[in-house]
Queue: 3 jobs
Job 1
Amino acid sequence: MIKNAHLNYFLLSIASAVFFAAAWIPINIIPLLFFAFVPLFFLEKRIRENEKFSRLWILVYGSLSFFLLNYLTTYWIWNASPGGAIAAWFIDTFLMLLPFFLFHLIQLKSSKANEYWSFIALWISIELLHLRWEFAFPWLTLGNAFAPFPQLVQWYEYTGVFGGSFWVLAANYKLYQLILLWKEKDRSYNLKRVFNLAFVLFFLPVFLSYYITPTKTDEKTQQQETNIVVVQPNFDPYQKFESMSPMQQLQRILQLAETKLDSQTQLLIFPETALQGGLDERNLAFNPLIVELKHFLKKHSGLNILSGADTYKFFEKNEVLSKTARQYDSELWYDSYNTAILVNANNPIQIYHKSKLVPGVENIPYASAFGFLKNFVIDLGGSSGSLGSDGEAKVFIAGSKNTIAPIICYESVFGDFVKDFVKKDADIICIITNDAWWGNTAGYKQHFEYSRLRAIETRRSIARCANTGVSGFIDSEGNVLQKTSWWTEAVIKQNISIISSKTFYLKYGDWIASIAVVFALMKLYELIFKKRSH
């Protein structure tokens, strides 16, 4: 009996991970996401009710399921660093296991053992934590799964991705209840209840999405347009720092740009760290790469160039050092940055330092306590260790028409951070990135798709420029207007809408997650301080 029970628990934990992975990008069998937690709910129930088993088995089988889930969806991290991948998988497994285990404890203490809303609140609370702390890696926030299907979640302009997380979790809970009633031959199980459940959990959200979708005559879309050219140079990310000099790379990018530029183009975009080799911000205007850009701009009146750059800045002798300052010699200290710059012919260069840094690559989380994590730093070619940052959103002014949000790579996964740029009146979102570190895997595909959700949340058009696969243009409904192929040298041009209206999400942020945190704290208080109900 015990052996059969363990086999049953094993199969339930594996089934949950497989359902989840098959629903995720790039497989995209999205209906499976509404079943993915059902096996775990049955697993929890059977372990809770089996008096012959230690309650700690919930940790064993929960860990198995969540570790497999993380491996199947983010296996590609291994291509950059085995140590970094293992660290990421274990941290994410622990974070997913925590709400599941706490939910199990709450179930044990409750007389009704029907505390599934507490699981929903706990899970979303952990998703919010994984968005805000220094180990932040919100890659598998449940609401991200709908990115390839923006027509289903146009209501993200009100809820953000946590609305999608709530949808997934609530649907799983209700489906589990329905299956339980059917298995127990409960008289309350009937076709009318099935129909009502399907309508509320599936057809209603889809109907709302269709109703919310802006029409072509909507005043939001009747705005000015701007002409943008994006260059995907397709440099091998592991060779770009050695195979060509920084000047040779820039000249090649400019040659590519010339094939699409015309008098109507207002903005030209290069990818993350397109200008590399270390640019001193104290003398930026005199750097040979910037001089080359300025010379190029003289031939193209009214053009603005947005580019990624590898920059650094020395501290003055009496200046307060940042937490990420590095020592150059006995007297000099400096900060290194992953930077976005905007250059045009007549105005000062505008600078933004990436603020959402990749844990273990550009930032050592809680360095004073976790200094040993330096041994797990993921090698992505350029600077590593803790980089400096601005710590807040900044917008660029590109001529008289455009206000740009310069989003750098990983930052595009953070809906709450991208909204800060738009709240500062950015009317176009520009994402510069370098997505080929993990090879031709699901990683770069997931990253591109997540950008579509930022368009819906903010109702802003997006121009995305990658060093290689995938660059593209996305409209304010999350539709892909144009995109490039993987590992291909490409230049693309598009007129995109300039939109200035503000969404509900821009005004109120992740309000669903805030409510979930309050409810989760109430349940944890009951778990710790209240006696078991009888």
Job 2
Amino acid sequence: MTPTREIYWNISWGLAVYPIAIISIAIMALGIYARVNRWRAGRPSEKPSEISLRIWRTLVNALGQARILREGYAGVMHLLIFWGFVVLFIGTLLVMVHEDFHIRVLQGNFYLGYKLALNIFGLGAIVGILMAAFRRYVIKARRLDSDRAFAIAIAFIFVILVTGFLVEGFRIAATELTQHPDWAPWSLGGYGVALIVRGIGEPTLLTLHAATWWFHMITAFTFIAFCIGWSTQSHILLAPVNVFLMRLRPKGALKTIADFKDKGALGMGSVRDAVWKDLVDSDVCVRCGRCHERCPAASTGKPLSPRTIVQKIKNQLHMETVGLPWHSGGNGARPQPNPIVGQNISDDEIWSCTTCGACHYECPIFVEPMTKIVELRRHEVMVRGKMPETAQVAMVSLQKRGHPWTGTPHMRTEWANDLNLNQLSKAGPSEGRSNLLFWVGCSGALVDRNMLVSQAMARILQRAGVEFYVLGNEETCCGDPARRVGNEYLFQSLAKKNIKILQHYQVKTILTTCPHCFNTFKNEYPDLGGVFEVVHHTQFIASLLAQGKLKLDPPSIQSLTFHDPCYLGRHNDVYEPPRSVAQAAGGSDIREMVRSRERSFCCGGGGGRAWMEETIGTRINQMRTREALSTGASIVGTACPFCLQMFEDGIKGIDAGERIRVLDLAELVGQALQTTEATPRQVTEVPLG
């Protein structure tokens, strides 16, 4: 006999499940629509572009669970639950096709494979639910907050899965065990239940089967209606939407304000100022805590938690909009929106952020807390005129002097007094000369410690015979500090001035030792018409070494650990060139810190924090310095002027000067060049790839 089964075996009024399903789906849809309607309180987002890329990334991250699987236990747990439900849902659809559309697919070997697949994935989902409960209520992972809705949801899922196996077991015990014993083992879970209950008698089995079947159905449809429709479990449907809507701009680029006359565009003062994508972000966040766990501010006792920022925006959105669409009053918002900062989010929260991007990297569904914090800062700075006093002093210096270092006694060109460098102002625009500009940056030109790095880099270029130019006194700040603290207007003023100068001199390639300048020129200037090839000094040095343009003495350093700058690594995915340079100049004993590469821990100097007092909690640079010390390395290698300064301060702060010192990788290479015979002076073209 061909393997198959009767769908509504032992169930009276089985077709009544369809009106129940329709009601359940309608309630769920109403909840989802109410959420979508709330998003209309904000400003329209840009229409999605590059649809094929978005679809691919959604498949990889929603179906493939790529980001979730970065963490072993949590990733496997979620994968088991997710794919368990996907396969069980497909199985339910096949039942409908088989019975109600009379397409007899559930028969023969396909039916046996169908049973096996549903049982394997169903059992896997049960394992995943038990793992979730164990992690939250037994281990009590620190990053997870208390959530009654989550407890209700996993209870529902567990009951649905277990009763499904009970229904199947009662049916198998009453039919297949005696009539078709070779079919029964294909249902692993149901077969196990059947073996346990086989002796309780057919009338009892029939009663248990029917009662459990209806209980299973009602529980499943209740979960669909209320948990998926009206609770955080709506992320089952909405998370893929948020992944699809992810921003495709470079990771290190902030949104450019096109119209400064539009006050609503000057940051996020209320939920009405937020774009739809920011409100979708806040509504689909499931408070998993990955961003909170990796945030340097949260880790060092600051009041900021990326998760809390997102949840507070969500709560304010819910307070200022009415849940049901027929009460929404046009755009779903109450007449008078309330300010977010000061009423819901504190000043200390938004000014604790270092814009390191760890929260963006960690979120499995592409929620972006950092950009929301910057939008909150923009409103505070450009509309309300508020920012920390020390940051204000730096901004005034930026506006008046073109750099944020108010206490520096130096001029822009002092660092190069003895180097005999070529200045563009003297060379002028010309198609015949080299188009490589060494952009020194404010720190590289005006901060004593970083001036040594600039000198080392210039000597490396000279030793390699590379023709390059500097701007000298015409150089001004790239604008990164202004943009990160929220002064977008000042950023654009500086950027447009720089772009005009660079285009006047026909600069095509910019070399910089600062990842913040690197990120700004590469990812943010194009919005304003400044398109240049941009290379970080570690990339350039790695290229010189690979081509044999630089010859180094054998490394004499015993041990070195490299700190990945946030704006070089996480924001721009540059990880290997610095390590190849460190290995060439520092030796093979490169000791990685526990948090490195994509998960490198911030030095504490980004987001304008280099110009703000750190008075709350542990100093971020001291925590990172201790992580470097734990490797046992004698040198911390850096590739960023802010990181260099932060480590210098961190080492002093914990009295670790005798155990470890910090050097930029250009300084390491410079030291290795000191006893090497100079190569003949010649101009070389260095490919940047």
Job 3
Amino acid sequence: MSWLPQFFAPSYWWLFLLLIPLVIVYFLKLRRTRMAIPSLALWQQVVNDQRVNSPFQRFKRNLLLLLQILILLLLVFSVMQPYFAGTESNALKLPILIDCSASMGARDESGKSRLDIVKEEVLEIVNGLPPGTELTLIEVGASARRVTDFTDNKVVLREALEEMAVSDVASRLEDGLRLAQALTRSTDQIESVRLYTDGNLPTKMNPATGKPMAAIDFDLSFPIEFFPIDPAGRNMGITSFNARRTSTERWDVFVRVESDAGGGSDGKVTLYSNGEMMGEERVVLEAGESQRLVFRVDTNTPHRLEAKLTVSGHDALQSDNTAWLTLPVGRRLKVFCPPELATYRHALMAMEEVALEPDAEGNTSEASYDLLISDDVSDNTIQATSSLFVGQIPEDLQQLVTIQEVSSAEDAEEVEYPRIVDWKRDATLLQHTQLKEVLISDSPVKGEGVEDGDIEREGYEILAYGNMGPLILRHQEGMELDYYILFQTDRSTLPYRVSFPIIVSNLVNEAMQQASLADLQAPPTGVLPPITLPARREVACRVTTPAGKHQERTTTEEGVLIGVSAPNVGEYEIRQEGELVEQVGVSLLNSTETSLATVDKIHFNELAVEAAPERKTTNQLWWRQLAMAALCVLLIEWWYFQKRPAGVPD
């Protein structure tokens, strides 16, 4: 025991003074009325009582006094909170980071999750919290959140610990570390930070050993204690769910299933469309293996697909066994391109998946388009998801960039001939293109003192650079994507290069992606994808989570709902004025979380932290036992002196 220092603490020693009034009560003598009597022979008992009431005789064989002293001592000792010292350091302030990512919901065969085990360990720390020590609990999931301030209130800590729950997202441990770093810099009373996790962290290949290692891009500036939790057992889950339109009549749907590294598993994957079963495939995987399954559905009707994985035997994680994907009706891409851009129309007519307008007579039948290609400023009023403007400078850049024309040989001698000097080869529009020898007549020129950063601060990405200014720009705002070719392509050699039809094809493919007509991915947890609602205006709506909770949101002026938190797997319902207008299912789809892989060392930028070799024990308080003993003695006293049955000897 290590409670003697508290025994003499000034805050408690005065409690022993309570013995004084208890003893004084037994010094008091009985006061009787004085009377004259003829003889003392009959009053011998009175004489004996007076002798017993003398100061020293009062304590002889007085069991009641001894019991009351014992009760008082037990209560005083319990208030002093004696304890058996543990190995845990008595830091003044201790931040505790608790991983609440999806893998922490993995359950062993007894049904206990990894988070349940962490809660039990942290609860022991809370129960054994010595005086003067304060804790703060930090929940780490897709972001970090302080659940409590620094406090020694055990009731508050227990309630906060109980309310912690798993979110079906990947862990962003660096956010929790940044929050802990801010706490360590705000006070010098923090000796270290404690981290509880199952060790299922993003990994990268160690160049020295050739093996994967957990690496976090963070400069660790404080001591950290890393306590990993043992794995829960074998697991199999869906890690990818996507569809590709292979023709105007068919979607190919791909489902990837992976097994953890702990052991092989087998099961079956069932695909449902609008509630009806479309197909079923058997899956047998060894440890760490994966398999991709292919299903086919038609494009004639919209599909709300649901893939369900049923595993034989124990499956540690349930949140990765279901995935959702919505497929629209297959149709051709609606493109508006005026007859004046003959080179673009010629390239578009060769594509089967494109419905081109206006027709030969100049007629149009659509109110909006998936892709707009134009060199006329007035066409900005045409509603389109994706746009390409040729020979036009965006209105908000006209003070930064101007067009200088080279129209004659004399001009060519006076002005440096424009050329493409570099371009972003990984940009979607310019993939597989070669623009090095393209000749340009119109020269976009940056204004005096204008830098590339000035253009980028306006929200534009420069895709191609000329010797005098930017040549191709990309701008995306909300659901709308705009490209700008600042020079007239018909006054360049670009239409005569192989790269031109490739650029048009890349543009069409990206427009199909924007219109959800090509490759579609099932949305993962975290945040719902942008959703365009039927009311193309700003409107209030209610989002209902799979758990039945509600979020009140307002769409943008274009009727797009963005930024809706989706931390849990399931279907989210979106209602306007009580009417269901959209239903979106989100899935875990994370290979790292499904693998349940664990690490015993975390690599930071300049150092590595190994897992603690053993769990530290906290101080074991035993004031409860002392208080219970005092209660038992009190009950014995009450029974013996008040409720003792007749016939029981003294």
